[in-house]
Write a structure and sequence with these properties.
alpha/beta; UDP-N-acetylmuramoyl-L-alanine:D-glutamate ligase; 6 helices
Length: 220
């Protein structure tokens, strides 16, 4: 099983659907037949309801997605919107005070019952305080960690031996990077070694020059 820890969002433009890197890669992995569970927080609102229904239809489990009645589900207006928190300038959700915040205790609780997983993906928009809880859960489960970092961010200490660290590209092609990571996680979950899984995920896809997508480390 693959567990994705990240910031789910909803695309409010037509046609609506799940948005954000966590949702993109979770759906990509689930579309290839793998069992996927998403860990995150969303608002207790209509976009949140629509998001959970859409995730279920895409085969992504959401038992560990918490509802926050005090904050709204992040909504993407569309890629052309200048204030879009998931726009090309920053593929992650803007971690402002209006966005439901994933706490370390949320991650620890989720991973305490999602124990039978082989791959844990942590997206770059997860609050730094919650990352150690995710790494501890992965170590307990013996899972391969795929840690996604914003460009220029150093990898934290204490990564499990089986870890892959990837830099999230700037100005990435819509959905391309999320798909690559989702397929990579699927390959790891299917038992491929990291090198073969990564080559399979990349395939014929080449990032744009301004994407600067590079693996910054693989300890596995």
């Amino acid at each position: 099983m693959i567990v994705v820890v990240g910031v789910p969002a909803w695309n409010g433009s037509e046609p609506g659907g799940p948005a954000g890197l966590a949702c993109e890669l979770a759906i990509a992995a689930a579309s290839r037949g793998r069992k996927v569970e998403l860990v995150g927080r969303i608002g207790d609102d209509e976009p949140g309801d629509a998001l959970l229904i859409a995730l279920a239809r895409a085969g992504v489990g959401h038992a560990a997605v918490l509802r926050d009645p005090s904050r709204a589900t992040p909504v993407v207006a569309g890629p052309s919107e200048p204030d879009d928190p998931l726009g090309e300038a920053d593929p992650g959700v803007d971690p402002s005070a209006t966005v439901p915040r994933l706490e370390p205790a949320d991650v620890s609780l989720a991973l305490s019952y999602l124990t039978a997983f082989a791959v844990l993906v942590v997206t770059h928009d997860v609050p730094q305080a919650a990352v150690p809880a995710a790494l501890d859960g992965a170590a307990f489960a013996g899972a391969h960690v795929v840690l996604l970092l914003a460009a220029g961010t150093a990898a934290p200490e204490g990564l499990p031996t089986a870890s892959t660290v990837l830099a999230v590209p700037q100005g990435r092609e819509s959905g391309a990077f999320g798909t690559v990571v989702g397929v990579y996680a699927e390959g790891l979950d299917a038992g491929l070694d990291p090198g073969r899984a990564f080559r399979s995920a990349i395939g014929d896809w080449e990032p744009a020059d301004d994407d600067q997508q590079t693996p910054v480390g693989d300890a596995g």
